[in-house]
Design goal:
The complex is a heterodimer of chains A (204) and B (590). Chain A has 204 residues and is mainly α. Chain A is built from seven helices and five strands; from the N terminus they run ααββαβααββαα. In chain A, helix 4 crosses helix 5. Helices cover 61% and strands 5% of the residues of chain B. In chain B, strand 3 and strand 4 form a beta hairpin. The chains are: A mainly alpha (204), B mainly alpha (590). At the A-B interface, helix 1, strand 1, strand 2, helix 3 and strand 3 of A face helix 1, helix 2, helix 3, helix 5 and helix 6 of B.
Chain lengths: 204, 590
């Protein structure tokens, strides 16, 4: 028994060193060497005129957008919304009033914005992570008239841009088609910015 | 439901089928100590470990000694994790300066990770330092998986050996599993994950300047409206890929982040998701082949595999159907699947996975004792949520956890063979071994500890303020939340109807105890069976022997699993998910 105990203690120490330290350090080293951008969070930088780079987000993480000139992400339960240091979902049951009331409120708002169009379910439901970077192509299509009007673009042009930004199933098979909201909005800001006076109204 | 959805599920089944034999053969070679292509590098490391720890690799153990070694090792390593959590603030690799854990949460987490459960009553990215995650939690992902696989191998040896007093050496089985089966695969898998976007670094959390700053309005504690401007997004990162690999391959399931495999940094693409699901089933499926090969009855291994697959198909079809139908209570929302949206019940699910991959993941993670999630089971439709719950209640024997799935299923095999023996009035035999009273008693004991723990704790929690105050979803769903918690903890799964507030003294203490009972009380009788079977002579097959290689056997095995599960748990299920489903169809909400 004493012998077993001694071996157990030694085995715990040895395996902790190998699997708890050497292994993750080795993976970190390899990852930083082979895929440095991805290993550090697929961060998107914006470069100021003086060459200073600021992080504006991650390709993989959504952000909250509320201005009418932007495509909106899905509702989020991560912190105050898209809090990337506090991921999580609503965990509301399908029969919970809180869920039904929230969706009802969102549906009313969306119906006022684009009457007649069907409201895709992902636009009024919270994601699992609270950080979902994507919306479905339907959810993007639903918002096209609003964004086009705000940015003074033609619906056709904007639709073409969204189509170009739509990611199909991986290898044509896996997952679901989707549109990355942050990247789409950043491209819109770069190519067809909202007029200054409109943007300041939006920010209030 | 869509053709593409069924095709993705079919592709998954095909991948698991193709992996079964190669992995099974490889594990035979590892545990029978035959030559493998990795020996040139791993054998010296193995020898060094034995020398440092003072292990005699030639020595064989009786089942009692094997069990004691396993228990002492689990105890010592659990204690180390507990201590690490309690002092993490003063240890290195804690860039966010997370404080030490309080004792109840530290106990719960230590028990949970030692038992391969990975029930998480905390939010990792706001609680655990990098060191605790790497050297504490991910470390236990390795060892608890290796312990489970070692136990399964010991049981297989018990079945295949004749008139032998011993069933192997625990230290050797565990070490060889860690070095040959888990480590090389995890190195490779971790790099594939990084290539998909899973993060792997030791840096402090990053800060992003939001593209569109937000004004958040709310109501303060004094009832007055509050307003604050958010201009930044703090981005949690860390050594995720290294943990993610073993989290899935060892059917552990403990997320680096709260959102687990729904978090884009843990599971960024549909391909990473597909790989994660395959990893859950890889070793458990392979072990069925190992069973067939080591007992010289390959068709028996496939018969067990087929029984598992049929239970899986029933589960995944139900979950997929229920989730694709959506939530009838959501008025004015388009939940119809099309080429441009997945439709269905999307609350608590990610767009890139949609309904198919969320339902499939939920089925796979609970068929096995993994417990990782890529969508919140709490927000599933009642019948969609019934599937993961039922999967765990059946004992997680549908491929199951690494090792634990196979030894759990073999207990049902013994019962099935026993029932077949009763029907024809002969002493039951299993692969040439007579199954006698002692074996059946031990099998019954191994099975009974699970419902006893689950039902007792659930009953107490359902009628006490300290239990019901944690419920977040009213109505029948509240009962489901409590029941799911103890089912998951005792079944060593780790997923949850996660709206429940599990970080209370009561739930931390009780689910911690449940994980230990579910793991260690169940394996002692199983080791006893292994020791007892190893001792026996083999008897020649006769016309009266019930063959364990036929579809009839697979059917009997499936029926045994279903009957025991249904008889034990149907009353609770009818008061929880089934009642909620009926009320939902009647338009009721809570």
């Amino acid at each position: 028994m004493k012998e077993t105990f001694r071996i157990a203690v030694l085995m715990t120490i040895i395996t902790t060193v190998i699997f708890g330290l050497i292994y993750p350090f080795a993976v970190t080293g390899l990852a930083q060497l082979l895929f440095p951008s991805k290993a550090n969070g697929s961060l998107i930088y914006s470069h100021a005129s003086n060459g200073q780079a600021t992080v504006v987000g991650s390709r993989l993480l959504g952000q909250t957008f509320t201005g009418p000139g932007y495509f909106h992400s899905r509702p989020s339960m991560a912190g105050d919304g898209y809090d990337a240091a506090n991921s999580g979902g609503s965990n509301l049951a399908p029969t919970n009033h809180a869920l039904l009331d929230r969706v009802k409120g969102d549906v009313e708002k969306l119906r006022a914005e684009n009457p007649g169009a069907a409201i895709p379910v992902d636009l009024v439901t919270t994601s699992a992570s609270g950080l979902d970077p994507d919306i479905s192509p339907d959810a993007a299509e639903f918002q096209i008239p609003r964004v086009a009007k705000e940015r003074g673009m033609s619906v056709t042009d904007l639709r073409a841009l969204v189509a170009r930004r739509t990611l199909g199933r991986q290898f044509g098979i896996l997952g679901e088609p989707r549109v990355n909201v942050l990247e789409l909005n950043m491209e819109l800001d770069a190519t067809s910015p909202v007029k200054k006076w409109q943007k300041s109204v939006v920010k209030k | 439901m869509s053709a593409n959805g069924w095709f993705q599920i079919g592709l998954f089944v095909a991948a698991v089928f193709l992996l079964t034999k190669p992995l099974g053969v490889f594990m035979v070679r590892v545990f029978e100590r035959e030559k493998t292509f990795l020996d040139f590098i791993l054998r010296p490391i193995e020898r060094l470990i034995y020398r440092l720890a003072g292990v005699d690799e030639k020595r064989e153990m009786r089942w009692t000694e094997y069990g004691v070694a396993m228990l002492v090792f689990s105890g010592v390593s659990m204690l180390l994790l507990y201590l690490m959590e309690r002092v993490q603030l003063w240890l290195p690799l804690n860039p966010q300066k997370f404080t030490n854990l309080e004792s109840y949460l530290a106990w719960n987490t230590a028990a949970s990770f030692t038992t391969n459960t990975n029930w998480q009553a905390y939010t990792p990215e706001t609680t655990m330092s990098y060191l605790t995650q790497m050297a504490g939690l991910a470390y236990h992902n390795f060892t608890s998986a290796a312990v489970g696989i070692a136990l399964a191998i010991a049981l297989i040896r018990g079945i295949s050996r004749r008139e032998s007093k011993t069933i192997g050496n625990f230290w050797v089985d565990m070490t060889r599993c860690l070095l040959w089966v888990l480590l090389p695969a995890c190195l490779l898998i971790a790099m594939i994950f990084v290539s998909q976007g899973v993060v792997q670094n030791l840096k402090p959390y990053a800060t992003a300047q939001l593209v569109e700053p937000q004004t958040i309005t709310g109501t303060g504690a004094d009832g007055k409206p509050t307003s604050k401007v958010v201009t930044q997004q703090i981005i949690a990162t860390g050594p995720v890929a290294s943990q993610e690999a073993i989290k899935m391959f060892g059917t552990n399931g403990g997320g680096f982040f709260n959102a687990n495999s729904a978090h884009p940094f843990e599971n960024p693409t549909p391909f990473s998701n597909f790989l994660q699901m395959i990893l859950i089933f890889a070793i458990p499926a392979g072990l069925t082949f190992t069973l067939g090969r080591m007992t010289h009855s390959p068709r028996h291994g496939w018969a067990v595999w087929a029984a598992m697959l049929s239970l899986f198909l029933v589960g995944v079809s139900t979950a997929y159907w229920a989730e694709a139908r959506g939530n009838p209570l959501l008025a004015g929302v388009d939940q119809q699947a099309s080429a441009t949206q997945s439709g269905g019940n999307m609350e608590g699910k990610e767009v890139r996975f949609g309904i198919t991959n969320s339902a499939l993941f939920a089925t796979v993670t609970t068929d096995a004792s993994c417990g990782a999630i890529n969508g919140w089971h709490d927000s599933f439709t009642p019948l969609g949520g019934l599937v993961p719950l039922t999967n765990i209640l059946l004992g997680e024997v549908v491929f199951g956890g690494v090792g634990s799935g196979l030894y759990g299923m073999l207990v049902f095999v013994i019962l099935a063979v026993f029932l077949a023996g009763l029907m024809v009035g002969r002493t039951p035999e299993y692969l040439g071994k007579k199954i006698e009273a002692y074996d059946v008693k031990m099998a019954a004991l191994a099975i009974l500890i699970f419902p006893l723990t689950v039902l007792l704790f659930s009953a107490v929690s359902s009628v006490s303020a300290f239990g019901t105050s944690s419920i977040s979803n009213p109505g029948p769903h509240g009962l489901s939340q409590i029941f799911y918690a103890f089912t998951s903890a005792t079944g060593n799964n780790g997923s949850a109807f996660a709206g429940i507030n599990a970080n209370t003294q009561w739930f931390n203490a009780s689910t911690g105890i449940s994980t230990l009972l579910g793991r260690f009380f169940a394996v002692i009788p199983i080791l006893a069976i292994a020791g007892n079977l190893a001792r026996k002579k083999t008897v020649p097959q006769s016309a009266g022997t019930f063959p364990v290689t036929t579809p009839l056997f697979s059917m009997l095995l499936v029926s045994t699993v279903l009957i025991i599960g249904a008889l034990t748990f149907f009353p609770v299920l009818s008061l929880g998910p089934i009642l909620e489903h009926l009320l939902m169809l009647a338009g009721r909400s809570f």
